[in-house]
Amino acid sequence: MTVTDPLELLDIAGLLSDEERQIQETVARFVADRVRPHVADWFEAGTFPRELALELGKLGVLGMHLDGYGCAGTSAVAYGLACLELEAGDSGLRSFVSVQGSLAMFSIWKYGSEQQKLEWLPRMAAGEAIGCFGLTEPDFGSDPANMRTRAVRDGDDWILTGTKMWITNGSIADIATVWAQTEDGVRGFLVPKGTPGFTTRTIKQKLSLRASITGELILDEVRLPDSARLPGARSLGAPLSCLNEARFGIIFGATGAGRDCLRTALDYANTRVQFDRPIAAFQLTQEKLANMAVDLNTAALLAVHLGRLKDAGTLKPHQVSVGKLNNVRKALAIARECRTILGASGVTLEYSPLRHANNLESVLTYEGTSEIHTLVIGQALTGHPAYR
């Protein structure tokens, strides 16, 4: 037997329901038709076509795991499988969907007022409005508790001052969820594009996530009414809970990137002839392929297991850290190893592994660095927080 998909090795599809497989296949077709023919050009140009937002909205993946307000209300596993297929196309595509649905939309869905939900969620689910999530700052990434962005009461209003950095969708967003320190702790605010004092800047010269827009948010005494505050967000736990939502998608997404790399390397190894044989027939190449397939399939098993826990309502933050740390690390190693099978051809955008490897360098760092997730797991094992 010869498998046509690396994940057939352990029959991962056999763990899924018919509905989950149908959702995965639908997203895979979209990626094949709309993304793969163009993504190398987007990556080279450093752009993300804004019209994709409307297409992704029509596909139904924006906030698909949320209930109501135009959202599909799918299972966590179904959402994860969509992320797998999106990141098989490119991490930038999955990042857009993840930030839109699991950060910007989730923050409104979980902590917003009914008025805020009705105003923004249907448009965001349709891709008519783009959101971003402003937590990270130039000097505070892993330590958001010490953020410098401040929100001060001024009568019935709030005055926000500060800077947010490395914000996906930042300079194209219609609405930003911005987190700030107040006298009563961290609070979240919705800042619409065009608000006086609110400006954005696109970050250029990136070597990673080039098919994704990354920006800086600058808040210079931005005045907002109290109705812009997310009333349900009353501590740093609110933005951290949003991050856990997005990290869950990464667990599946990284697996998709790894699968795309391994598929590419398998196809190449079976057609590239050296010494009168395809290089897939040599032991050293088969060892690489076998080791990568084992790592990829165990990552997929972990993703599905954590998805089932999330659907059951029992998934814990340290378990998300296990999934994010393991699956991104494994996917990055697979991408690098696949590039070696491709030889010199692997350094061009004709083939995906090095593009995925570049992207995964960012995925390894954002939404919790590998070091931070290691310490989260260490605390779960020992009971001792080692962050300081």
From TrEMBL:
Domain Acyl-CoA dehydrogenase/oxidase C-terminal: residue ranges: 240-381
GO molecular function: fatty-acyl-CoA binding; flavin adenine dinucleotide binding; glutaryl-CoA dehydrogenase activity
Pfam families hit by this protein: Acyl-CoA_dh_1, Acyl-CoA_dh_M, Acyl-CoA_dh_N
Domain annotation Acyl-CoA oxidase/dehydrogenase middle: ranges: 132-222
Keywords attached to this entry: FAD, Flavoprotein, Oxidoreductase, Transit peptide
Annotated coiled-coil segments of the chain: none
Positions of the Acyl-CoA dehydrogenase/oxidase N-terminal domain: 17-128
GO biological process, one term: fatty-acyl-CoA biosynthetic process
Cofactors named for this entry: FAD
Protein name stated in the entry: Glutaryl-CoA dehydrogenase
